[in-house]
Protein: DUF4044 domain-containing protein
Organism: Clostridium fermenticellae
Amino acid sequence: MKKKQREKMTKFLIVFVVIIFLVSLLPMLGR
């Protein structure tokens, strides 16, 4: 059970980083 929870957290972290990356790129694309 602990292993699955850790996998879920890792997936969440990856998605979080990708969102931040896209948000930081948006202003550059807007120009």
